[in-house]
Amino acid sequence: MSKKLSVVVFALVAVIGFSSTSFAQPADLTSEKRAVVVQTCVSAQTVMQKIQHNDAATRVNRGQSYETIVSRLMTPLNTRSTSNGYNSSATLLTDTTKRYQQALESFKDHYKSYDNAVSSALKTKCKDKPELFYGYVEDARRERENVAVDVTLLGNLVSEYRANVLKLRSEVQ
């Protein structure tokens, strides 16, 4: 029973860590922690494979949505507002768009680092190298947090852009 509980606990810790490159430093594990990692790492890798599969689809969908926002909404409106002489609003719009594009690049870079760390953890023979495996898991957790920060920033920039569009609208009327 204790062994099953350890598997569940380790898998749960991995899932929680991933819900929120690949140059992992081997973790400094206590002998107890090392034993738990060795006992549960194969199950954790199975959970991580499922997470990686689901995250890949989510990343593609989000990435396409983010790209669409820039190419089909922001850029054309920026061009029209500039060419029609709405200089104060156009400046706000283009500034927000520039920061959005930078945040989008950051999102892509952080996601690659996250995915590389997960892939490295999955490739590691975790029973033979539990410290290295755990190091990759820790890297993946950190990179996942960076991705979450990027997603929040992108959402905030979309809100800011919307507010700037409303300013433009009042300038036009």
Q: Strand pairing plus helix content: what structural class?
A: mainly alpha
Low-pLDDT regions? 1-22
Please give the alpha-carbon distance between the first and last residues.
Answer: 71 Å
- The helix content is over 70%
Count the DSSP helices.
4
Query: How confident overall, as mean pLDDT?
Result: 87
Number of beta-strand segments: 0
Order of helices and strands: HHHH
Main beta sheet, described?
none
What is the 3D form?
Answer: rod-shaped
Radius of gyration (CA) equals 22 Å
Q: What portion of residues belong to β-strands?
A: under 5%
Identify the notable features of this structure and list them briefly.
single chain, mainly alpha, 4 helices, 87% helix
What does this structure look like?
The chain is built from 4 helices and no strands. It has helices at residues 2-19, 31-83, 87-123, 130-172. It starts with a helix and ends with a helix. With 173 residues, it is mainly alpha-helical. The longest helix has 53 residues, at 31-83.
Secondary structure blueprint with pairings:
Layout: H1 2-19, H2 31-83, H3 87-123, H4 130-172
Helix pairs in contact: 1-2, 1-4, 2-3, 2-4, 3-4
Provide a short characterization of the protein structure.
The protein is an all-alpha fold.
